[in-house]
Amino acid sequence: MDSGISDAVYQDQILPHVSRTFALTIPQLPAALRISVTNAYLLCRIADTIEDEPALSPPETLAFLQRFMSALAGRGDSRTLCLELAERLSDRTLATERELVCNMQRVINVTASLSVAQRTAIHRCVGLMCYGMPRFQSTASLRGLPRLNDLDDYCYYVAGVVGDMLTDLFCEYSPAIARRRAGLQSVAVSFAQGLQMTNILKDVWEDRSRGACWLPQEVFSRHGVDLARLAPEPYDPRFAAGMVELVAVAHAHLRNALEYTLLIPGEEGGIRRFCLWAIGLAVLTLQKINRNPRFTTGAQVKVSRKAVALTRISTGLALRNDWMLRRLFARAAHGLPLTRIGETRRPHPAHMIEPVPVLEPAHTAEAARALDGQPAAGDGAIERAQRRSYGGSAT
Known about the structure:
- By secondary structure, the chain is mostly helical.
- The chain contains 18 helices and no strands.
- The chain has one domain (7-371): Orthogonal Bundle (Farnesyl Diphosphate Synthase), CATH 1.10.600.10.
- α3 crosses α6 (95-102), α8 (116-137) runs antiparallel to α9 (148-173) and α15 packs across α16.
- The longest helix has 27 residues, at 237-263.
């Protein structure tokens, strides 16, 4: 990347290199939202990169995540952190993710330039993610998670917190959306869980190759399956039966995702597109999983480029028509198993996240100059940017 560009431009340039999906959907958002949502994604991506690095022990991962949060809050030395992390990242970390980590301060500079409400939402989301992810990763194994409730909690920390954050950002952007905050908040976590569960089901064999399984043993025990002994071959219809149960749960969450989207006023077409494209691709992925229970790699149930194009066209034509959007969803989800789900809970301790420090006016001006591509005063410390998670492997 060109080191002479502004931090905001850096964000836009690195995004497609670390996420094809969000490089497609984030540009659909109104201009006033693109910077904050891109910034949030890149910060989450940095946290994911630290979390996913196999060369780090669980205590080291937790320590690096805590230092990352301190840097985000303006209390840590991000330059030293970047240098130490760069030395520890293995070949398993992609080159673009490594670059993102090394340019951590550029992303943090953009965060500092945002409004207090935006910074608060983003800081809370990243903080909860950095709190929850290592607690699951430290006990990850091929045995899976014990209960379905544990899967719900895992999905909350890696995706549900993003649903809450996006709701806060949308409401801060639009008074009309803010009037519907209560309804949006009631299904925001469920929306994100539907996307995350779809990724977990799609990537089940890739996750196992890395020594992790996020499926709930509680579900598969009912079918006589021991996840610790699971293998892609030979095909086991009992495992497929357990997957069908989870497809039904994910389908129910995606129905809530549609309800979330329909609460966004029709005139906010960009935000609706941002949501609808993600929902459409998730539903189509569930269909592939449901129809091909013998799949052994995520590539075998990946949605085709033609299906992506059709999703974009069809949702675009129906964008303001809630009835048509419901019909499109029903058609895409036809034949998928469905179950009843309860209210999605938020498992975190309320006291855990510290507030975002409010910048002094001079620092705010520094950040604003950096976003405009102007040189900052003083030592030029305002200049760099990044993100990933939004549902774990949903990239």
